[in-house]
């Protein structure tokens, strides 16, 4: 082994790759507990846990390729996107985990968080007030009653692997728990809205496009300052700021 790859690193956690082994370093033991529980319950392929020595969790790499990346071109056939949608549906229909996940915030708490974040984005000069105001109205669609599902909580396109039209693994379950299923669908298609129809063809009924659009806006608004503070760029083409502009 001649190199260690830093996959992601910020103040909350870091992930390293050494050959076919990923080492996840996370000082929050509860979050790691939730990830291990979620992977044991998920009815879809997940990474094999090799060992755990807090604060490190070692997991095996999963085979296959992703369908693209945020800010980049999407790949894969319509059937592959539909297969991902079907796998997401399997997760959502599984028995509920014990933990309340990222997608499980109450409407009251979420509305307060959106409001505070919108004010901070404008006050800090990151986004113009008119854009924030328009996108905040789009967010309102998510503030409605919903039945809890088993949600991944951070279902970025980079976290779902396929070989052809077969899902070979879904990774990074640290935000999993009970939550709003449409949050996962919005997260998976963020930046790839042209693939939403194919994903929903595999996912099936029970979706609301206005709510998915609302979650696109919520996730983008809530992510921008965090991304900037942790060395990422939400202003890159096809990323969060472009998503907000398209919704406005």
UniProtKB/TrEMBL annotation:
Aminoglycoside phosphotransferase domain residues: 24-207
Superkingdom per UniProt: Bacteria
Name of the protein described by the UniProt record: Aminoglycoside phosphotransferase family protein
Organism listed in the record: Streptomyces bohaiensis
């Amino acid at each position: 082994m001649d190199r260690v790859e830093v996959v992601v690193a910020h103040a909350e956690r870091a992930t390293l790759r050494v050959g076919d082994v990923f080492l996840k370093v996370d000082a929050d033991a509860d979050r790691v507990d939730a990830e291990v529980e979620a992977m044991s319950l998920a009815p879809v392929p997940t990474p094999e846990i090799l060992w755990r020595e807090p604060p490190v969790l070692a997991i095996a790499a999963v085979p296959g390729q992703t369908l693209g990346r945020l800010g980049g071109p999407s790949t894969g056939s319509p059937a592959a996107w539909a297969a991902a949608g079907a796998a997401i549906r399997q997760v959502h229909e599984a028995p509920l985990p014990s933990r309340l996940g990222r997608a499980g915030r109450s409407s009251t708490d979420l509305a307060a968080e959106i409001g505070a974040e919108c004010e901070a984005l404008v006050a800090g000069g990151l986004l113009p007030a008119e854009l924030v105001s328009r996108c905040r109205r789009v967010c309102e669609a998510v503030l409605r009653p919903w039945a809890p599902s088993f949600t991944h909580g951070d279902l970025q396109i980079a976290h779902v692997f396929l070989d052809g039209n077969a899902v070979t693994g879904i990774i990074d379950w640290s935000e999993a728990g009970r939550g709003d299923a449409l949050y996962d669908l919005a997260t998976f298609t963020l930046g790839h809205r042209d693939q939403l129809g194919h994903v929903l063809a595999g996912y099936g009924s029970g979706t609301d496009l206005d709510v998915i659009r609302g979650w696109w806006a919520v996730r983008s608004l809530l992510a921008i300052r965090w991304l900037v503070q942790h060395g990422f760029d939400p202003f890159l083409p096809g990323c969060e700021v472009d998503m907000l502009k398209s919704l406005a």
